[in-house]
Design goal:
With about 120 residues, the chain is an alpha+beta fold. The chain is built from 4 helices and 8 strands; from the N terminus they run E-H-E-H-E-H-E-H-E-E-E-E. It has a single domain, classed as ADP-ribosylation fold, CATH 3.20.170.
């Protein structure tokens, strides 16, 4: 079921290699998990820290990509996932033109990713 959300931006966490390939191709077709599931896994702002910890704990640095939801249109669906939360899923290729901002995120000494303020 696709729920309504007011989020103007959703987020994708990428490895540095994935980000470099995305920049070169100007599109991202998905990680191995995305391809297996049939959609690109995204996160709402309040889900980024947990996603980084759960799926990218062994990656340092990572790249956090902010994506305009207006550009994604009906290909973006909010669906129940981990812990019953609704997560944004993109049933299309992610285009570089949809990216509004990105950050390279390093880990702190205690092993947590140092996300930008607001996360």
């Amino acid at each position: 079921m696709n729920e309504q959300h007011d989020d103007d931006v959703v987020y994708k966490i990428l490895t540095v290699d994935q980000w470099n390939a995305f920049q070169a191709a100007q599109e991202f077709t998905g990680s191995a998990a995305d391809l297996s599931d049939g959609f690109i896994h995204l996160s709402g702002q309040n889900q980024v820290a947990e996603t980084a910890q759960k799926y990218f704990a062994d990656q340092d640095p990572i790249v956090l990509v902010a994506v305009s939801t207006a550009q994604l249109g009906e290909q973006l669906k909010w669906e129940k996932s981990r812990g019953g939360q609704s997560f944004p899923h993109l049933y299309a290729t992610l285009a570089m033109q949809d990216v509004v901002q990105h950050w390279q995120i390093k880990k702190s000494e205690n092993g947590e990713h140092l996300l930008p303020s607001g996360f």
